[in-house]
Design a protein that fits this description.
The chain is α+β, with helices and mostly antiparallel strands. The protein has helices spanning 5-8, 13-19, 109-116, 129-135, and strands at 24-29, 32-45, 72-78, 82-89, 96-107, 152-155, 166-169, 186-189.
Length: 201
């Protein structure tokens, strides 16, 4: 079942970042469907979060997407190389976002292998946010897509993880955020190999 707007518009970004673990992210590109189970996320808590692009209410052409209502994709280029896929959550003008950092390939594995030029048995195929996006064919053209549409969407397949099965650690690559760099707002499924480094708890 596709997740609905009401799901994405939950104001509790930390709850959603954990609840999205086990949900299945789909893309359909030129008739080719690929899908992977979300294994790793990071929460970004809007204008109050020093690690967020929207910290302090910053609004630019790039961040404007974050100010739309939840249920929209936010894709940006990192280091000029990697497209990173984020889920905009909460209500309009409250710019919460969740970065998808890893997926476990489920459907269209041979398509992912072609996109990543490696076998699906290698965790590097879809662990780390740039790799996960590339495996699913997500590029900048996916920015501002409706997550309840037919190009990119997320389904609930009834997979649930308890608090004990989820690791909560500091986010990756946000040293600029000062004390907020230490917040344990990166979540991943313990023991799943399709999780970016460091994946030790």
């Amino acid at each position: 079942m596709k997740l609905s707007y009401s799901y994405y518009q939950n104001p509790d970004v930390l709850f959603l970042a954990k609840d999205l673990l086990g949900k299945v992210l789909f893309t359909q590109i030129d008739g080719e469907i690929t899908a992977g189970m979300i294994t790793e996320t990071e929460a970004y808590h809007g204008i109050h979060d020093k690690a967020s692009h929207a910290y302090g209410g910053r609004r630019t052409n790039r961040t404007e997407t974050m100010y739309t209502q939840g249920g929209i994709s936010y894709v940006y280029l990192c280091y000029g190389i990697h497209n990173l896929f984020n889920i905009v959550t909460s209500i309009k003008d409250e710019p919460h976002a969740i970065l998808v950092r890893g997926i476990e390939p489920l459907r269209g594995k041979e398509i992912m292998e072609r996109r990543r030029n490696m076998p699906v048995t290698k965790e590097a195929i879809s662990s780390g946010p740039g790799s996960a996006a590339k495996a699913l064919g997500i590029d900048r053209s996916f920015n501002e897509k409706d997550l309840t549409g037919d190009e990119i969407w997320i389904e609930d397949h009834g997979i649930r993880y308890s608090e004990d099965e989820i690791a909560a650690t500091p986010r990756v690559g946000v040293d600029y955020a000062g004390d907020h760099a230490l917040l344990p707002w990166r979540f991943f499924v313990k023991g799943n190999k399709y999780v970016s480094k460091p994946n030790k708890v």
